[in-house]
Amino acid sequence: MNHKNAILISLNEDITEIIDLASSLDYKIINTFIQHRRKPDVNSYLGSGKIDEIKDFIETSEKDINLIIVDGELKPSQWFNLEKKIGIDVFDRIRLILAIFEERADKKEAKLQVKLAQLQYERPFVRELIHRARAGEHPGFMAGGEYQVDDYYEMIKKQMKKIKEQLTSIRNQREIRRRHRHIIGFYLVSLAGYTNAGKSSLLNLLSDEKVKVEGRLFSTLSTTTRRIKKKTIPILVTDTVGFIQNLPAYVIDAFHSTLEEIEVADVVLLIIDISEEKNIIENKLKVSLDELIELGVSSPIIVTFNKSDIISKNEIENRIEYLKNKLNIGNLLALIYDSLPRLVCFKIKLPINKETQSFISWIYEKAKISDIFYKDYVNLTIECNLSLKSKILTKCKDLKGFQVS
Q1: What pLDDT does residue 11 have?
Q2: What does the pLDDT read at residue 183?
Q3: How many Å separate Cα 401 from the centre of its chain?
Q4: Structure pTM?
Q5: Strands (E), 22-171
Q6: How distant, in Å, are the alpha carbons of 188, 387, 399 from that of 358?
Q7: How far apart are alpha carbons 230 and 331 in whole angstroms?
Q8: What's the confidence (pLDDT) of residue 210?
Q9: Which of 233, 156, 242 is nearest to 192 (CA)?
Q10: Which of 5, 11, 144, 347 is the most core-located residue (most Cβ within 10 A)?
């Protein structure tokens, strides 16, 4: 494998994950420059002395340096000044992750989601280039050559609008498939967790299939759904994109159509790599739980420890006891469930017409329809919170329907 050489810049010593991210794109970190400071320098992220130190290293290095990687999020002005002073391409943590996403995306939806996130990332940087150009400087776009940045900015806006429309269409198609699966009696289980926790391996184990498994970050960007064959109850299990800490909201939003598979699942398996160090497990578990809460998951969450085969039984017990004491997971999950709106179950009958079908689609978006069948009326069994129940019954009455129980 031909590695490319990179220099790493960080404001703290915790650089394990950023090195793994760089390695995922075949970058070898040949030197690390750490400047301990609470906040980045407002102009260049690093102080001028540290930048001079980096320039001296590059000038005397026997190896070609292909990239500067910053373990943090750069403001457009910081990025511009760093590239200008050092003279080498600079990627911050978000741009590095988006580059990994781009390499991993293999299906149409994943490619669209990644492109949308990249365009949203680029917008403020292009605005900075427009500002610099108008001030008399003539930079190329992202150090990649000469562009008419004004035209490029307009292209970004148009392209984002088009991609969002395409993703909405794909999302609607997935919702139709998901609704059909519920109607014919399938239960939906989603696998969630930090990137590279082993979700795809568990999917294979549950389904007796051979979905491609790669031991690298973000190997799964698209959803993969298989049927669990070990039980007679019809259950579909879906693998989803992995979590990672400190992602901007727009990156998570770009993957919403994929992540909503977790949101609508009947059960969520939260996969944790138990073979890692205790403090790392603790951090990744916190990040994953925060993401699940942010997604609005209201289904049961089962914390599932994976990769237990590569450490001893004593080490497994030690890690689990640590997590119990450190996070008190049982109480934490109980608190999440207790904080969720209480669900009530009731049945309604609706006349069969076009307006009713539109109303049923709305119910599917807001509540859980546990049973539906057509006879003289459309018969629905619904689970939702009390406030939503009153809205459904009001609309039901407007459509000449009625509550059965």
Answers
A1: 93
A2: 63
A3: 41
A4: 0.69
A5: 27-34, 67-70, 90-92
A6: 23, 20, 11
A7: 31
A8: 67
A9: 242
A10: 11
Cα–Cα distance, 13 to 36 (Å, whole number): 8
Rounded CA separation 153/224 (Å): 35
- Per-residue DSSP letters for 255-284? THHHHHHHHT-SEEEEEEETTS-HHHHHHH
Summarised one tens digit per residue, pLDDT across range 78-88 is 998 998 899 89
pLDDT at residue 150 in the model = 66
Write the DSSP symbol of residue 3. P
Which ranges of the chain have pLDDT less than 70?
1-2, 135-150, 181-185, 209-222, 229-233, 257, 325-342
- Rounded alpha-carbon distances, angstroms, from residue 88 to 2, 29, 61, 73, 254: 20, 15, 14, 17, 29
* Cα distance between residue 324 and residue 331, in whole Å: 9
Rounded to the nearest 10 degrees, the angle between the axes of helix 256-263 and helix 149-183 is 30
Ordered by where they begin, the domains of the chain are 4-102 (3.40.50.11060), 105-164 (no CATH), 185-339 (3.40.50.300), 343-403 (3.30.70)
Tokens 């008190």 sit at which residue?
328
> What's the rounded Cα separation, in Å, for the pair 276 and 311?
9
- HSE, CB side, 13 Å, CA atoms: give it for residue 233: 6
